[in-house]
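Subject: complex prediction, re-run

Hi both,

The earlier run crashed halfway through, so I resubmitted it with identical inputs.
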Amino acid sequence: MTRLLPLIAMLATITLLTGCQDDDDTRPALEVPSDYSFTRDAQSTVSFSGQTTRIAMAEELAVAMINFDQTAEGLAEMFRNTEGTMPFADADLNASTKSIRSKVAASHDLFFSNTTASTAIRTTMDEWLTAQVNEVFPNRNEVAAAGQAGQIADGSSVRYVNANGLEYNQAIAKSLIGALMYDQAVNNYLSTAVLDEGTNREDNDMGTVVDRSPYTSMEHKWDEAFGYLFGGSQNPAKPLTDLGTADNFLNKYLGRVEDDADFTGIATDVELAFRTGRAAIVAGDYAERDRQATIIKENLTKVLAVRAVYYLKQGETALTTTPANTGGAFHDLSEGYGFIYSLRFVAGQDATVVEGWITDLTNASGNGFWDLDTTVLATIANEISTAYGISVAEAGN
Amino acid sequence: MFFFILQLIKAMSRYLILLLLPLLTYSACSNPAGSDDDDPMMPSFDRREMLKTWADEVIIPAHNDFEANLEAMAAANEAFSLNPGAETLTEFQNRFKAAYLSFQRLDPFLIGKGEEIRMRELLNTYPANVDLIQENADSGAANLDLPSNTVAQGFPALEFLLHAENNQLLTNANHRAYATALIDRMLLLNETVLTDWNGTYRDLFIQNDGNSATASIDRTINDYIFHYEKFLRAGKVGIPAGVFSDDPLADRVEALYAGYSKELFLEALSASRDFFTNRGLKEYLDVLNVRRDGELLSSQIEAQFAVILEASAALTDSFAEQVEVDNVQLLGLYDEMQRLVVLMKVDMVQALSINIDYVDADGD
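This time it finished cleanly. Structure:
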């Protein structure tokens, strides 16, 4: 065998060299621009207005959930944006044909042939909206207690919780990060099934654009993934400039994880991968495109897992200090609830495991967060950390 | 880069402790008098005695002093209510100011019951919500226990009634009734905390002299530094100066209507400084011979307090005015205050083996 080694090495070298020569012959070197800007015939090919619109709708919905003049119908209309209704303050959003609900749990990879799950998730969110109006609104001037919805103080902030201590507005806002932004970007627009759908590759190779648009279908799909993360940015060509403040959803929390010294660099990695992958599409290098898609997927998944663990640990600390910071803890756990719910949208994640975490956290057989056994929080945090290969200590601070 | 420097400082302080360790162990052997102390690392310093000083000479007296001032204000309010006029109003305003100043001396030490009942938030969350104050005064039936009424009570709310709406206070019985309700609540909150201290809490506080995260020294120093960082540095100076926003925010100052933000700031600064210099902390650091760049850390902290005082000397009484006229001066003060955060929150706590138990709030 040892005698064969030099031979194998030689053969390998020859193969590699040939490979390289082939590459050089068939495709140009990948040129990655310094900004996320791409053109065809001097016209920008980047477009993700639908994503910007849905982010803006979700922003309005989250605020409306603690506007006590709202009704259950009003919130439902914001969630659905049914034709003929005008639920939003922003007229452009009312005029739009887009809606939040139609893209919740709607990715190709996870829900194309699982409308049962998709419908169940959307119905759960419908129920949160209704419950907010029916359970929390009437008790907005009550002091919350076990079994009593109402107000709870978190420092000088006021939080509005249900009888179990959960803030529905946080639950839905943070769940949308997984159910809408992450699911659409990762499991839909970065999916090879979507990127390569129909004649996409052929069209992209030939530079065949979509009807009266400057972009090919594949370019556009990729940009739509980009839009769910950076669509709220003031200057999406340089989206790291206002990272963390461009929205209150995926962008904000990529920013938060980036700000944790244990994860610094994650945002740069994601942004570079988006740019490189997009350049790869322009160059017709689909293997490179998919390598970059994988980098994006892994890092965005990490954002969800890190924030889930972070809020569990923060909640645990707030509940176990003396004196306990109950309102602060409930707020953390409500955000954590949404991030755990979001893990449901990670490909390969067993949904029943997530449901188990949610059940344990919700403690509905007791008084919810009010009499939660704090060891449950540590257990869930450990399980998530193990499943996603992150450290509790790094994520939890 | 900043983090790197922090890490470096951390690493250096650790090294310092290692150097000190043999020294301390040696004094432990030669000084059995202090052997009732359960902490082998810090034998030549009586931790329990320091806690006694904190309880009996700082915290409980601050609550008592505050109570006396609140009662004097309540009396002035009563005199005003019986006979609303320019003279009784001025006396009421004077008593209000005295109570507000007294609160500054208590504010860094709201621990235990004070923390549990959110006394600081309930007494001094600003800016106040003036619409809610009007609404509550008009309705005459506000539930001040509701967290949403935190921004409509305490000193900022009373200040609004006394200084921005004093015509209403003179003519409108509802406003006077609301002022009375606010004062009654302040008295009740302070009484609740004081009763706890005068009951079992004082002894528990002093006996809890170990060095775990829940021990009294750790807790008190955490709360002390937290107060310095969040309320003295950020609340009174940084936020109005616009350190945390795109533009300066003149309407976020303390005592917006009364116009004496500087006096309140100086009183709070003096309470912070006194606690460090005269109540045990400085001595504790010196016994441990804690040095930074060859100099006693305590000297550096004291010097920085002096620099801060100097940086505030030229400021006008109203920080709202200061922000408008020359915000750079306020920013300069903030920067000096920030330097002290590093000395206390990094160097001091490392030397005393204390973990900072609070994190920067998430902000959402």
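DSSP finds 17 helices and four strands in chain A.

- K.
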